[in-house]
Design goal:
This protein is α/β, with parallel strands linked by helices and 200 residues long. It has helices at 16-19, 24-27, 33-36, 38-51, 75-80, 122-128, 141-154, 171-181, 190-199, and strands spanning 7-12, 55-61, 107-111, 133-139, 158-167, 186-188. The protein has 9 helices and 6 strands. A 6-stranded parallel β-sheet has the order 3-2-1-4-5-6, sandwiched between helices. It starts with 6 loop residues before the first strand and ends with a helix.
């Protein structure tokens, strides 16, 4: 039997450096309207969970600083996003934070790759909190979201993908990702998820 107290909204990477005009992507001209619209949609789900005893969990994509603050950046990411540099997605900085409209998160987990489970404490904190059901939204549908959904699935969490609570830089990429993820997880709109949570 599903319980909202054992359910979390897992927000993947809705951070200032991705979404805000003054963030790393905004300054580089990489804004995307579909991505920018996500926080307000996901907020509905967050508010229902907050009101019914559930959890809000935020993952923060992180570029770990090395010497002189130069970040460690994977070669494939450096090739894809050459504008990333010192101070971007740096722990404790404004750009690294969850966007204001979705604050506060009950649990925040830094991550260094696509999946929120890869080399992080994510599974540990979810188990400690007694969470067994995850509603997952965020960015990007075919990257951080897809990898996190698949890793949650193989760890036997009940997974719901928020179809309109995720986005990619291209709509066809998003649509393909949602079709693929529907083979291993339930998919719902944010409004459907709110109704589902209220009926639990």
């Amino acid at each position: 039997m599903m319980s909202n107290e054992k359910t979390a909204l897992l927000i993947v990477d809705l951070q200032n450096d991705f979404l805000h005009p003054q963030g790393a992507y905004g300054r580089a001209g990489k804004a995307c309207a579909e991505i920018a619209a996500l926080p307000e949609r996901v907020l509905e789900v967050a508010n229902v969970l907050r009101a019914t005893g559930g959890w809000v969990v935020s993952t923060q994509f992180t570029l770990v600083p090395g010497k002189q603050g130069e970040p460690f950046i994977s070669p494939h990411l450096k090739q894809l996003r050459p504008f990333l540099g010192r101070g971007d997605f740096s722990p404790g900085e404004w750009g690294h934070s969850l966007v204001d409209v979705l604050q506060p998160a009950d649990i925040t987990v830094e991550k260094v790759a696509y999946s929120a489970f890869y080399m992080t404490r994510m599974e540990w904190v979810l188990r400690k909190a007694g969470i067994d059901t995850l509603l997952i939204g965020g960015i990007v549908s075919n990257g951080g979201v897809a990898s996190t959904v698949r890793d949650a699935h193989v760890r036997d969490f009940n997974v719901v993908v928020l179809e309109d609570g995720c986005a990619a830089f291209k709509s066809d990429v998003h649509n393909r990702a949602m079709a693929d993820l529907a083979t291993i997880a339930r998919t719902m709109s944010c409004r459907q998820a709110c109704d589902w949570l209220k009926s639990a």
